Amino acid sequence: MTRVPVVVGAGLAGLTTALHLAPEPCVVLCAGRLGSGAASGWAQGGIAAAVDPDDSAAQHLGDTLAAGAGLCDAEVVRSVVEAAPGAVAWLDGLGVAFDREPDGSYALGLEGAHGRRRIVHVGGDGSGAEIMRAVVAAVRATPSITVVEQARARRLVLGADGEVRGVEVEVGPDRELSVLESPTVVLATGGTGALWQHTTNPRGATGSGLALAARAGAVLRDLEMVQFHPTALDVGRDPMPLVSEAVRGEGAVLVDGSGRRLLDASAGGAGDLAARDVVARAVASELRRGGRVGLDARSAPGARLASHFPAVWEACRRAGVDPGSVAIPVRPAAHYHCGGVLVDPAGRTTVPGLWAVGEVASTGLHGANRLASNSLLEAVVCGARVAAGVRQVDRGSAAPRAAEPPHRGGRRHTAPGPPPWVRPTMTEQVGIARDGAGLAAAVERLAVEVDRHGVDGVSDPVLVALLVARSAQLRAESRGGHLRLDHPGPVGPVRHTLLTLADVVSAPVPARRSA
Length: 515
Hints:
Blueprint: E1 6-8, H1 12-21, E2 26-29, E3 47-48, H2 57-68, H3 74-94, E4 108-109, E5 119-120, H4 127-140, E6 145-148, E7 151-158, E8 164-171, E9 176-181, E10 185-187, H5 208-215, E11 220-221, E12 226-233, H6 245-249, E13 253-256, H7 276-288, E14 293-296, H8 305-308, H9 310-318, E15 328-337, E16 340-342, E17 354-356, E18 361-362, H10 375-392, E19 402-403, H11 422-429, E20 433-434, H12 436-453, H13 460-474, E21 483-484, E22 498-499, H14 501-504
Parallel strand pairs: 1-2, 1-10, 2-6, 10-17, 16-18, 20-21
Antiparallel strand pairs: 3-5, 4-5, 7-8, 8-9, 9-19, 11-16, 11-22, 12-15, 13-14, 14-15
């Protein structure tokens, strides 16, 4: 067996991990072309970091814990926010052209539930694209990193001892099947937003990493905690363009169809800049009543919208919306998965040899509701930490070797998208507002599909949807991003939802084991 780590996913978290592994060799599996299709490149807000003299890591910590509604790991949060200025400096060193004030200091934005201006951004709302540009360039200039494009991980290969031995991969348009042998696999596969009808995520964001981890027996945590961004541009596009929270940070306000303010300062203590779960529920409630919701940017940022938020302006222009004369039509959309594969502070999962980083991982940073612009921060900080942990394990430097796997009734290799009925089911029954009856119906419908095809044959999106729905069913309270209409308040003591595939499916088929 070769000993080169394999990183599954080429977003910011995966590429950061690969860069910090250098000069030790590694392989990065990229589902499409390097630099395209990753949700990291779509991020508008930027990176949250206490770099202003009037700010502090302690204040960033407090805001993160408040947004997380009791499910954050305070020590993990502390370590990440304290590392935030260093993460920004590292990106600066890669050539990321962060926006600056005339005196050379960072131009800082304000977003929901932040008590200070601390969002370091690029081009107003072009942060993700610029950060990914610089990171991709660095990866291409690093000879120790081998990127395999158009490669989809289909199965983790485990040894008889339950440890990772490699990953089964489909490569190229012909989906040629092979196995990369390695005792170290890092999942950096992103989120699950495309399981819902309204999402800001790429269509491929259906939780493939969660499915890989679940089939290998990993413990998953708080999968019910899905963050819905309150202001996606509602013009019939799929995925939906995001209207950055920073637009509200510059003074735009949410209004109903008659032009009345939807939120005031009593809503979560911050009105339009309350935590995302608070704002998303207010918007969704108005839509359920048959109303309309818009983001009124005419007074503020007003004429500055085009220069400060060019991506938002261009999306509106293409849709025929003039933000200078009408409120921008918005609605909530699935945006970020706060739960994920349970990892320790170094990024290790409960499966030996399997690591996870970025949105697919549950580090304890986000809790029940992610604080705005903490996701790119987590990708950079935790990518470096996973690399450090992996490098502590004695590795050789041999190149990876592909081998034909034995075929023992292996699983079907289906297209990555969900069956057409999955997105309506998740939207209607596992959406922003949930109840016991709807969740039970969703679990039953999804479980029937799993029973029909078997765990080894059902598509990844169906399996992940079942895991999320079952997790939501198990949390009989409302907390953070999880609203149960039949259990409207939080219930103490605070607890996490922990499950494995064996807890949800009576007889799961294990990941393919090596001979």
